Amino acid sequence: MKIEHLASAPDRAGRYLVKFDDGKTIRLYRQTVEDFTLYPGLELDEEQMEKLRRAAGQMSAKMRAIRIVSASSVSKKDLQRRLIQKGEDPKHAMEAVNWMSDLSLIDDLETARQVVERCIRKGYGLARAKQALYEKRIPKEYWEEALSDYPQQLDAIGEYLKSHLDSTSDMKEIKKAVDALIRRGHSYGTIRRVLNTLSFDTEQFPED
């Protein structure tokens, strides 16, 4: 198979269009073009084409992995899932994750810490932080360390209650605010403590 055309400039994704004499095309990152010393007129046999396709897939997964990690905190399992979801070959996705890990560009414990820190900043309770770790596919072996100093969030609960309730609030409104805080991961016991300090009736709410 002969290369009929090789773009002189990359597209928006940073890939170069390569067109073959049979009409097929492939988009390659610069590194792959240079690794295979590609140029118009070059003929490739089937074995060389297979190597080129494999290299293209591996590079595609790596570059996509870099973009994903740059945009958000992800665990290794989550990154692999997202790569496959985006259309990358499962084997290439796993290789890309291992490559990122070897370069210390992805670390599950560090990701766990970042996830927990975000939850604290948002005023979430411990239960919501655990849910976030689960959603990010963080291995449970890292949960304990990441959550070891998780605050009770009494101030966050107090601020939420003050912004939604006042001295004229009835039990229906109080219950609505409590339910919202439960959804944010706070326990009944902690919410009761704050309600008591604000002089609201807490008799109908569980202690934990």
Summarize the structure in short:
The protein is mainly α and 208 residues long.
Fill in the keyword field for this structure.
3 strands; elongated; 208 residues; Arc Repressor Mutant, subunit A; 10 helices; mainly alpha; 3 domains
Give the CA-based shape.
Answer: elongated
Quickly count the domains.
3
Order of helices and strands: EEEHHHHHHHHHH
Q: What would CATH call the class of the largest domain?
A: Mainly Alpha
Query: How confident is the prediction overall: mean pLDDT?
Result: 92
Percentage of residues in DSSP E strands? 5-15%
The DSSP helix count reads: 10
Overview of this protein structure:
The model has no long low-confidence stretch (mean pLDDT 92). A hairpin with an 8-residue loop joins strand 1 and strand 2. The protein contains ten helices and three strands, in the order E-E-E-H-H-H-H-H-H-H-H-H-H. It has helices spanning 30-35, 46-71, 76-85, 90-102, 108-121, 126-135, 143-147, 154-164, 171-183, 188-197; strands at 3-6, 15-20, 25-29. It has 208 residues and is mainly alpha-helical. It has three domains: 3-102, Winged helix-like DNA-binding domain superfamily/Winged helix DNA-binding domain (Arc Repressor Mutant, subunit A, Orthogonal Bundle); 108-147; 154-197, no CATH class. Helix 2 packs across helix 4 and helix 5 (108-121) packs across helix 6 (126-135). It is elongated, with a radius of gyration of 26 Å. Strands 1-2-3 form a three-stranded antiparallel β-sheet.
